[in-house]
Amino acid sequence: MYFMGQVTPAIIATWSFGLKAAEAGMRVLKAKGSALDAVEEAVKAVENDLSIRSVGLGGYPNMLGDVELDASIMDGSTLRAGAVAAVKNVKNPISLARKVMELTPHVMLVGEGACMFARLIGLEHRMPLQPEAEKAWREYIVRVMHSRPEKGTLEFWAKYIHELRSHDTIGVVAIDGNGNVAAGCSTSGLAFKMPGRVGDSPIIGSGIYADNLAGGASATGLGEDIMRFCVTRMVVEYMYRGMSAQEAADAAIDFILKRDGNAKHIAVVALDARGRPGASTTYDTFEYAFMGADMDKPVLRSINRLK
Ligand code: ASP
After folding, report:
1. Each residue's pLDDT expressed in tens, for the chain with a length of 307 residues
2. C-beta 187 within 6 A of ligand 1
3. 2 within some domain
4. DSSP codes of every residue in 72-127
5. How many A from CA of 55 to the centre of ligand 1?
6. Does 222 sit in the ligand 1 pocket, CB within 6 Å?
7. Does the Cβ of 199 fall within 6 Å of ligand 1?
8. 221 within some domain
9. In ligand 1, which atom is closest to the CA atom of 224?
10. How many CB atoms lie within 10 A of CB 223?
11. Is 201 in the pocket of ligand 1 (CB under 6 A)?
């Protein structure tokens, strides 16, 4: 039985920069905007902050020094979705993903084609690497390639960046007063990744999923773990079966840990069709932001599995 009653608009977002996202998205929801608009504005608020090293053009570059971005958005009222992967020179990949959904017959554009589409619709934005990101990248190159020349192989690089684990996605789920659910996310992915490496974020069902009938979810963490489990589709699947967002998030994480105890870098946030929040993680600790339309400002909540 699906919930069809009145809903208080709500928004949930990953990590502490989720506070900035939740605030921007809730402004849209309080002005009676749609969940889809709220998600786009929420994600943009983080993409536009060039001090953040894991989202947008302020993010750490790939191993060649190019910032490659991934993003996706899904409208739970229509089940339409848009995604872009490995795009360069785009300030707001979430808006580009939305345009893929709205202006093309496709769900996903990648690499050169996605960049060309961005150019065509005026979303191209060229900018030098942020000085701090460039400095960290140069130091990394020197450390890995020069001081350990015997290890300067692609195989070593691929393994080493996994150990480095520098990444974080802004993932957002919103529900508006009409019960429409939307989800979106955006990331620069793994710091210093191999060119063309794409994680879970732009993969519908892995990085995000949304359906008005059940709710929505967005994931963050190591994409190589998340995408093997199609984590957000799993969470929404549990909500289809009647679980609350919290029960569904916990059930998905329990399943993952039972199946692969090494998948220690996954977190998910969710809202069910009643607007109730949920979050769960295989990390030791995870922070996320939540705001309901009855609140003045978003709150930062923390999960600590070690307690
Ligand atoms: N899931 C993202 C990726 O693997 C990064 C993150 O959320 O921390 O690209």
Report:
1. 456 667 999 999 999 999 999 999 999 999 999 999 999 999 999 999 999 999 999 999 998 899 999 999 999 999 999 999 999 999 999 999 999 999 999 999 999 999 999 999 999 999 999 999 999 998 887 777 665 555 556 666 666 666 666 789 999 999 999 999 999 999 999 999 989 999 999 999 999 999 999 999 999 999 999 999 999 999 999 999 999 999 999 999 999 999 999 888 999 999 999 999 999 999 999 999 999 999 999 999 999 876 6
2. yes
3. no
4. EEEETTTTEEEEEEEE-SBS-HHHHHHHHHHHSS-SEEEHHHHHHHHHHTT-B---
5. 10
6. yes
7. yes
8. yes
9. 4
10. 27
11. yes
Q: How many domains does the chain have?
A: 1
* 215: in domain: yes
104 part of the active site: no
Expressed in angstroms and rounded, the spacing between residue 5 Cα and the centre of ligand 1 is 35
Domain boundaries, position 298: 10-304
The domain that holds 144 is classified in CATH as 3.60.20.30
Burial class (CB in 10 A: 0-12, 13-18, 19+), 168: buried
Model's pTM, two decimal places? 0.95
Contact 43, 94 (CB under 8 A): yes
Q: Is the CB of 188 under 6 A from ligand 1?
A: no
Q: Is residue 175 within 8 Å of residue 9, measured between CB atoms?
A: yes
- With a 6 A CB cut-off, is 221 part of the ligand 1 pocket? yes
Task: Establish if 112 belongs to a structural domain.
Answer: yes
Going from the Cα of 138 to the center of ligand 1, the distance in angstroms, rounded, reads 22
Q: Which amino acid is at 224?
A: E
Please give the distance, rounded to the nearest whole angstrom, from the Cα atom of residue 177 to the centre of ligand 1: 30
Pick the atom of ligand 1 nearest to 226's CA. 1
Q: Which of 169, 187, 232, 281 is catalytic?
A: 169
- Residue 175 has phi, psi (to 5 degrees) of -130, 135
CA-proximal residue: ligand 1, atom 9 (nearest): 189
Give residue 34's identity as a one-letter amino acid code: S
